[in-house]
Specification:
Elements (H helix, E strand, L loop, with lengths): L1 E10 L2 E10 L10 E7 L4 E4 L1 H9 L3 E2 L1 H10 L1 H13 L1
Parallel strand pairs: 1-5
Antiparallel strand pairs: 1-2, 2-3, 3-4
Helix pairs in contact: 1-3
């Protein structure tokens, strides 16, 4: 199973996180399938590659709680709903 989760990067006391698609059984710093964005909690900056995130969500990837909250603020799930509605019309 694939999860969308945070991978820690950066220095001590100055962490930034990559948002990656990774196998559930892998460690936090393990090899990721795909890098789909990053999150900097200090500067409160976020970059998301929304088409890639939508692709993984449609294939059944599960986001962790934090990634879900970050994606929700960016409006990713609104795009997911629009894609599902356009497929059925």
């Amino acid at each position: 199973m694939v999860k969308l989760r945070l991978k820690r990067c950066g220095r001590k006391q100055r962490a930034i996180y990559r948002i990656v698609a990774i196998d559930v059984r892998s460690r936090r710093e393990g090899k990721a399938f795909w890098k789909v964005g990053f999150y900097d909690p200090v500067k409160n900056q976020t970059y998301l590659n929304i088409p890639i995130i939508l692709y993984f969500l449609e294939k059944g990837a599960q986001p962790t709680g934090t990634v879900h909250d970050i994606s929700k603020k960016a409006g990713v799930f609104m795009n997911l709903r629009l894609n599902h509605q356009s497929k059925f019309n």
